[in-house]
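Predict the 3D structure for this chain.
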Amino acid sequence: MLTRHGIVLRREVETWQHTHVGRFRVEGVLGRGGMGVVLRAYDPHLQRPVAIKLLTDAKQGVREGITVNLRERVDHDGLLDEARALAQITDPNVLAVHEIGTEKGQTFLVMELVEGTDLRNWLASAPRSLADIYNVMAQAARGLAAAHRRGIIHRDFKPENILISADGRARVCDFGIAAFSRKGELIHTGTAGTPRYMAPELWRDQAASVQSDVYAFAATLIEAICSALSADPAVIERELAKRDVHPRLRGTLVRALDPTPSKRPASIDEITRAFTTPRRTRWLVPLALASAAALGIGTLTFALRHVDRSEDPCANTDEIVAARWNVSERVAVRAGIVAVGASSTETDNILTHLDQYAESWRRLRNDTCSAKVPAARRPARLACLDRKLYDLTAVVHALYHTPKTELAYTRSMSLPDLGACIEATEVRLPAGAAVRSQIEELTAKMIKLYDEGLATLASEGDQAALAEGRKQAIELGDIELAVRIDRIRGQLLTNAGKLAAAEKIMDEGIQLALEHKQDTVAALALVEAALVTRSNNDLSGADSKLRIAKMYLERSPEATPYSRMRLYRAIADVAADRGKYDEAEQALAEASAAVSRMEPRDPLWLVQLGLQRASLLDREGKLDQALQVARSAETQARALGTQSVWELGDLLALIQDLERQRGNLDVAVEIYKERLLLLSRAMPEDNPGRVWTEGLFGDLLITAGQFERAKDVYVRTVAHIERVPALARMHADFINRVAQAERLLGNFERARVLLQSAIDEERSHGRLPSVGYHEISFTYLELEAGDFDRAAVHARVAEELLATEAAESVNRLDIAETQIAIALGRGKPAEADKIASRVLALFEERKIDDARNERFWLAAAAARSLLGRPVEAKELAERALARCKARNAPALEITGAEAELALASYLIDHKPETLDRLRRHVAALDDPQARLYHARFLRWFASNRIRP
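Done. Predicted structure below.
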């Protein structure tokens, strides 16, 4: 019965039967907890069953499984506020609150009645697979995230508070001790929760946060998987590994239990993304030029079978492909992938990609044998297709025993481009079934050595075995395979940072092709070698190799549109690196023309060309056009599904950076997360592209003004690089980034030491253009420190190092900006105006009208204000401000433009209100990211004896 002091709870269910709470007829007790009782009842008005929760103010001790609530009394008004807030959460995975009421001073909640059980009983009732558990917990996560969006922290998330109905839908319930905002304050504070799932800060009577619920969610999920929850992170990770939990999820869950809230995942979604499959996610590392996709990488642990062909070369297409990809192979691959913890979606994606590749091979072979292709051209096409099928065989059987899900995904995506066979004109595969079988086995063996070499960093043993394979290929008469092996050896050496040795090996392959008069093979090997030379910052050397490749292709009767496309795309890349954008545009036009001559035409090539064109437009400063082209290519890539995973990742990287430049930081962050998920599936943990991408999150944090967090990201990346020798090439870049973060934090001396370390490292390897890049960073550092003489020295060194290789590149624009800042700091506005005007004239000539213009419009405006030409300065500042606002630029950039405009306006009208506006804008520029702007305006105030 009800009393004035709360609820008197009797053990017998019958006590509640046939009684009423308000208009609701009670039918029994559903459960009891530390804050009251939950009753089963019937609503006669709406004629539906409901659950009623009656709350008490009884103190509870700390007992396992019982909610702890050490408040002196129940805050009646607070509970009403809580109930009203919960009633606003209209999420299918949160238990619905129908009504709030009181009876005799006692609050009660009328809720949706769930016919089912809670998570603990659900787990105990039958064996549950990881997929089943993930499904339920993902639903619970959505419910919890919905509450978080309303500002509500559950504080008592545990298995008993996840209800699972008969149809399998999960609902989060019991927000009885939730913390939520009311007029900016947290209600229901104090020690509360269930001990096993309580975050450490709740035991310390500190405020609850989303990270408190993250802790409880992770504890619940770990217990659901392992049937127990250890206090030792190492034990947790070991137990999760025993149950084949994906390494990414294991790491996320352990991090979620960190005693420090700020070190846990920022949201529940970060955990669920680790066990749900991402829908999508630019390879930025110069090292990884010849990707696995380009080389066709896989491993082989089986005896290959060669299908004999009849005298008719076009017979048995279905039988040939079925010998390598069939139902039994599919079952074996699925078993191998599932055994390493791949999710059902990941497994389906890999199998679907193999299905598509086999079907594309079959379709292209049938097309080759049709009347559309002249009989004289068929042997070359068929020989080319045979080579591609050898790689399919190797990859399929490598997937039988894949050590990691990430490697399985990478292997499945590493199959070579079938489009290369469309225009094949020369037969380079020796005749005879026995010889072909040996070549197939040798191909698989060489691919296996490449796969192993990625882990051993091109050990002497790997290189010796590959050299022996090259010798065998020559003995079998397969010069193309021998040259391919040289490319594999070169790529392994490149990944190990041994670029000089890599170039030497690749040059040997080129010479071998030329000796056997295989000009097209030599030309394509030259293209690959040029990309390695480019990665060594030797752009002149790369350009020279590409010119020689072009000469060989032009004289070769076997040159195909495909080989021309490969050549001109490489020419475009190197031309862009050298700042020769017109030449790059022309090369891309040649590549597009080559694709248009192919029939059939692989849509993947159109995606690749779109990505390359968008990248070029970005480098030219044409952000709007670049984004339009990139978004169009992204749509095409998504339509191709798993066939375009690498291209999609590169497109997302480019789009992310374009959105960042346009001021859309939130969009850029979301794209970054998506891309990182894609890379985490497609690449192993120590892959250079993945490590680089993870480290670049610091750049977004810098843009957001979170310098300390950015520094932490960079420092962790440096530590990762130092553990893995293959990543050494990136070391100086991230040391530079740590220095940038230190500079923004005001630690100038520490930043100097770091930058000098990066410069010394690059000089020791002879990478002078990279030294120039770090010298630009040093120039900015000294400018912000106010030492214009030292800044000028670093700027001159950077200009000398970059003068030939990047005459009109982004680095040159950075140099121009530093020269302007030095001139203004030294009181030489005429010199600053001359430099800015020269750059703006170049932009006008190239029809560039985007973010880069703003920087130099404002620089010219600053110079002309000081030169006594405020009307011109005002016009330039107005143009810059309009452009900033049009692209939704970051607030500091807009404020900088507004300050320049206010200064020019004051020099014209001398009104006090204009001066006040200038003061407000300058005050808003007191930020580490605007230190140069702010210091310049302060110098103007001081020189004019005006209070800032």
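DSSP finds 40 helices and 16 strands in the chain.
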